[in-house]
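One-letter codes give the sequence; the fold follows as C-alpha coordinates. Both lines appear below.
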Amino acid sequence: MINPLFATIGSFFLLVSALGCGSESVSTQVRTMEVTVLFPADEQKYNEMITGEQDFKRAAELPFVKKKVVVPYSTDVIRASADAAAKEMPTEGGPTIIYLKIEKGTAYVLLNIDRDGWAGVSFSRARCHPVVERTLLQFKAIERVVWDEAPGDQRRHNNTGAANVRPASPVRVAGLWDRFLCAPPLLAAHVADLCRSE
Protein backbone atom coordinates (compact mmCIF):
# COMPACT_ATOMS: atom_id res chain seq x y z
CA MET A 1 0.00 0.00 0.00
CA ILE A 2 1.22 3.52 -0.81
CA ASN A 3 1.63 5.90 2.07
CA PRO A 4 -1.05 8.67 1.76
CA LEU A 5 1.48 11.39 2.72
CA PHE A 6 3.88 10.19 0.03
CA ALA A 7 1.05 10.20 -2.55
CA THR A 8 -0.04 13.73 -1.59
CA ILE A 9 3.48 15.16 -1.82
CA GLY A 10 4.08 13.37 -5.13
CA SER A 11 0.82 14.73 -6.54
CA PHE A 12 1.77 18.26 -5.47
CA PHE A 13 5.15 18.12 -7.23
CA LEU A 14 3.55 16.60 -10.34
CA LEU A 15 1.02 19.45 -10.43
CA VAL A 16 3.71 22.14 -9.95
CA SER A 17 5.93 20.69 -12.68
CA ALA A 18 3.00 20.37 -15.10
CA LEU A 19 1.93 23.98 -14.51
CA GLY A 20 5.54 25.19 -14.79
CA CYS A 21 6.07 23.62 -18.23
CA GLY A 22 3.42 25.73 -19.89
CA SER A 23 4.18 29.03 -18.17
CA GLU A 24 6.03 31.95 -19.68
CA SER A 25 9.49 32.65 -18.34
CA VAL A 26 9.96 35.81 -16.32
CA SER A 27 11.19 38.66 -18.51
CA THR A 28 14.59 40.11 -17.65
CA GLN A 29 14.32 42.93 -20.15
CA VAL A 30 14.83 46.45 -18.85
CA ARG A 31 12.26 49.07 -19.75
CA THR A 32 13.78 51.63 -22.11
CA MET A 33 12.90 54.85 -23.86
CA GLU A 34 14.28 56.93 -26.69
CA VAL A 35 15.77 60.40 -26.15
CA THR A 36 17.15 62.95 -28.60
CA VAL A 37 20.68 64.25 -28.19
CA LEU A 38 22.43 66.83 -30.32
CA PHE A 39 25.71 65.54 -31.71
CA PRO A 40 28.40 67.13 -33.94
CA ALA A 41 27.46 66.66 -37.60
CA ASP A 42 31.13 65.98 -38.41
CA GLU A 43 32.59 64.28 -35.34
CA GLN A 44 36.05 63.95 -36.89
CA LYS A 45 36.28 67.68 -37.64
CA TYR A 46 34.88 68.46 -34.19
CA ASN A 47 37.54 66.32 -32.47
CA GLU A 48 40.35 67.69 -34.68
CA MET A 49 39.35 71.25 -33.84
CA ILE A 50 39.50 70.45 -30.13
CA THR A 51 42.66 68.35 -30.00
CA GLY A 52 44.55 69.73 -33.00
CA GLU A 53 43.70 73.40 -33.39
CA GLN A 54 42.60 73.66 -29.74
CA ASP A 55 39.88 76.11 -30.74
CA PHE A 56 37.17 75.06 -28.31
CA LYS A 57 34.86 77.95 -29.14
CA ARG A 58 34.86 77.28 -32.91
CA ALA A 59 34.37 73.56 -32.27
CA ALA A 60 31.26 74.32 -30.18
CA GLU A 61 29.89 76.48 -33.03
CA LEU A 62 30.10 73.68 -35.62
CA PRO A 63 26.79 72.26 -36.88
CA PHE A 64 25.06 69.68 -34.68
CA VAL A 65 22.47 67.10 -35.72
CA LYS A 66 19.78 65.27 -33.77
CA LYS A 67 20.48 61.67 -32.85
CA LYS A 68 18.07 59.20 -31.23
CA VAL A 69 19.53 57.21 -28.33
CA VAL A 70 17.90 54.37 -26.37
CA VAL A 71 18.34 54.72 -22.60
CA PRO A 72 16.89 53.05 -19.50
CA TYR A 73 13.41 54.37 -18.78
CA SER A 74 13.24 57.45 -16.58
CA THR A 75 10.54 59.89 -15.57
CA ASP A 76 13.17 62.67 -15.79
CA VAL A 77 13.53 63.01 -19.57
CA ILE A 78 15.76 66.09 -19.31
CA ARG A 79 18.32 64.38 -17.07
CA ALA A 80 18.18 61.16 -19.10
CA SER A 81 18.82 63.17 -22.29
CA ALA A 82 21.70 65.11 -20.72
CA ASP A 83 23.30 61.92 -19.40
CA ALA A 84 22.90 60.21 -22.79
CA ALA A 85 24.52 63.23 -24.46
CA ALA A 86 27.48 63.06 -22.06
CA LYS A 87 27.93 59.35 -22.74
CA GLU A 88 27.97 60.00 -26.51
CA MET A 89 31.39 61.63 -26.02
CA PRO A 90 33.24 58.88 -24.14
CA THR A 91 36.25 59.89 -22.08
CA GLU A 92 38.57 58.40 -19.52
CA GLY A 93 36.34 59.39 -16.61
CA GLY A 94 32.88 58.48 -17.84
CA PRO A 95 31.38 61.07 -18.27
CA THR A 96 28.15 61.22 -16.30
CA ILE A 97 25.91 63.95 -14.97
CA ILE A 98 26.52 64.34 -11.22
CA TYR A 99 24.46 67.49 -10.76
CA LEU A 100 21.53 68.96 -12.69
CA LYS A 101 19.15 71.58 -11.39
CA ILE A 102 16.84 73.80 -13.41
CA GLU A 103 15.85 77.17 -11.95
CA LYS A 104 14.13 80.02 -13.80
CA GLY A 105 15.15 78.80 -17.25
CA THR A 106 18.76 78.09 -16.30
CA ALA A 107 20.15 74.55 -16.19
CA TYR A 108 22.99 74.24 -13.69
CA VAL A 109 25.04 71.21 -14.66
CA LEU A 110 28.16 69.36 -13.55
CA LEU A 111 29.76 66.26 -15.02
CA ASN A 112 31.96 63.94 -13.03
CA ILE A 113 34.89 65.17 -15.15
CA ASP A 114 34.19 68.73 -13.95
CA ARG A 115 35.04 67.56 -10.43
CA ASP A 116 37.55 64.75 -10.97
CA GLY A 117 40.24 66.21 -13.17
CA TRP A 118 43.32 64.64 -14.71
CA ALA A 119 45.99 65.82 -17.11
CA GLY A 120 44.15 66.76 -20.29
CA VAL A 121 40.68 66.88 -18.76
CA SER A 122 40.10 70.25 -20.40
CA PHE A 123 40.01 68.50 -23.80
CA SER A 124 37.39 66.05 -22.51
CA ARG A 125 35.29 68.88 -21.12
CA ALA A 126 35.63 70.78 -24.40
CA ARG A 127 34.27 67.70 -26.23
CA CYS A 128 31.42 66.95 -23.78
CA HIS A 129 30.12 70.33 -22.66
CA PRO A 130 28.80 71.56 -26.06
CA VAL A 131 27.04 68.23 -26.70
CA VAL A 132 25.31 68.26 -23.30
CA GLU A 133 24.58 71.99 -23.55
CA ARG A 134 22.98 71.77 -27.02
CA THR A 135 20.96 68.76 -25.89
CA LEU A 136 19.64 70.63 -22.85
CA LEU A 137 18.81 73.75 -24.88
CA GLN A 138 16.35 71.77 -27.00
CA PHE A 139 13.94 71.77 -24.03
CA LYS A 140 11.57 74.74 -23.72
CA ALA A 141 12.16 74.99 -19.97
CA ILE A 142 15.87 75.71 -20.52
CA GLU A 143 17.13 79.01 -21.91
CA ARG A 144 20.79 78.80 -20.85
CA VAL A 145 23.26 76.35 -19.33
CA VAL A 146 25.70 77.15 -16.52
CA TRP A 147 28.51 74.70 -15.73
CA ASP A 148 28.34 75.05 -11.98
CA GLU A 149 26.00 74.33 -9.09
CA ALA A 150 23.01 76.62 -8.59
CA PRO A 151 23.43 79.58 -6.25
CA GLY A 152 22.95 78.33 -2.70
CA ASP A 153 24.03 74.82 -3.67
CA GLN A 154 27.64 75.87 -4.31
CA ARG A 155 30.14 73.15 -3.36
CA ARG A 156 27.61 71.12 -1.42
CA HIS A 157 28.02 67.99 -3.53
CA ASN A 158 30.97 65.79 -4.31
CA ASN A 159 31.38 63.78 -7.52
CA THR A 160 28.91 61.13 -6.38
CA GLY A 161 26.17 63.65 -5.68
CA ALA A 162 26.42 63.10 -1.92
CA ALA A 163 26.85 66.06 0.41
CA ASN A 164 30.44 66.97 1.29
CA VAL A 165 31.50 67.04 4.91
CA ARG A 166 33.20 70.39 4.28
CA PRO A 167 33.19 72.65 1.26
CA ALA A 168 36.02 72.16 -1.22
CA SER A 169 38.66 74.87 -1.31
CA PRO A 170 38.93 76.95 -4.50
CA VAL A 171 42.20 75.23 -5.36
CA ARG A 172 40.80 71.71 -4.90
CA VAL A 173 37.94 72.18 -7.34
CA ALA A 174 38.83 69.89 -10.25
CA GLY A 175 39.75 71.59 -13.46
CA LEU A 176 40.98 74.73 -11.73
CA TRP A 177 44.59 73.69 -12.26
CA ASP A 178 43.94 73.38 -16.00
CA ARG A 179 42.92 77.02 -16.03
CA PHE A 180 45.90 78.22 -14.01
CA LEU A 181 48.67 76.16 -15.59
CA CYS A 182 48.59 78.44 -18.62
CA ALA A 183 47.56 81.55 -16.68
CA PRO A 184 49.59 84.75 -16.55
CA PRO A 185 51.80 85.24 -13.47
CA LEU A 186 49.39 87.77 -11.88
CA LEU A 187 46.61 85.19 -11.91
CA ALA A 188 48.96 82.59 -10.44
CA ALA A 189 49.79 85.04 -7.63
CA HIS A 190 46.04 85.45 -6.98
CA VAL A 191 45.71 81.67 -6.65
CA ALA A 192 48.61 81.65 -4.20
CA ASP A 193 46.75 84.27 -2.13
CA LEU A 194 43.64 82.06 -2.15
CA CYS A 195 45.72 79.12 -0.88
CA ARG A 196 47.13 81.17 1.99
CA SER A 197 43.66 82.33 3.08
CA GLU A 198 42.56 78.75 3.87
Q: What stands out?
A: The first strand starts at residue 32 and ends at 40. The helical segments are 4-21, 43-51, 56-60, 77-87, 112-115, 121-137, 176-181, 185-196.
